[in-house]
Amino acid sequence: MDTSIGIARQDRDTIARQLSKLLADTYSLYLKSHSFHWNVTGPHFNSLHTMFETQYNELWLAADEVAERIRVLDVFAPGSYSQFGKLTTIQEEPGVPDWKDMVNQLVAGHEIAAVTAREVIKAAEAAGDEGSVDMATGRLKAHEKTAWMLRSLLK
């Protein structure tokens, strides 16, 4: 059965490509936040350990929301590390940085994801896809707020 939701196939493909980048950013941030939760040390251990846990849990749920939106558009969602690695611009952390670098990296990652969410919004608005605009706007707000909260720790 063909998908007939009022958005042309070409437009759905364009939006799904942007959403796939957002999914890759989300999953990359999830993985980094979870690793930092496990490995944080230092004078702010307790507060950062708890904060990172809250953040990775939110990102885990967000990844599912983004992937399901891609499927609503009748496009298959990426789901492998290699696919995510090609789609995201968030840098992988192969080691264990100190707490301050962890926070800096997460700020940068959330800012990248906010920019990606803005690209989703542009593509979705151009196609009249209010569902994707709404979902991406929520993600944009979440990434901006998280970046602000993390950035506040560094002042």
Task: Give structural attributes.
single chain, 155 residues, mainly alpha, Ferritin, 0% strand, elongated, ferric iron binding, Ferritin-like_SF, DPS_DNA-bd_CS
Describe the structure.
The protein has 5 helices and no strands. The chain is an all-alpha fold and 155 residues long. The chain is elongated. This is DNA starvation/stationary phase protection protein. InterPro entries: DPS_DNA-bd, DPS_DNA-bd_CS, Ferritin-like, Ferritin-like_SF, Ferritin_DPS_dom. Belongs to the Dps family.
Itemize the secondary structure elements and their pairings.
Blueprint: H1 9-39, H2 45-72, H3 81-87, H4 99-127, H5 130-152
Organism: Dyella choica
Family: Belongs to the Dps family.
Protein name: DNA starvation/stationary phase protection protein
- Give the distance, in angstroms, between the N- and C-terminal Cα atoms: 55 Å
Rg, alpha carbons:
16 Å
Q: Domain count, please report it.
A: 1
Count of helical stretches? 5
* CATH H-level superfamily: Ferritin, core subunit, four-helix bundle
How would you concisely characterize the structure shown here?
Pfam families: Ferritin. By secondary structure, the chain is mainly α. The chain is built from five helices and no strands.
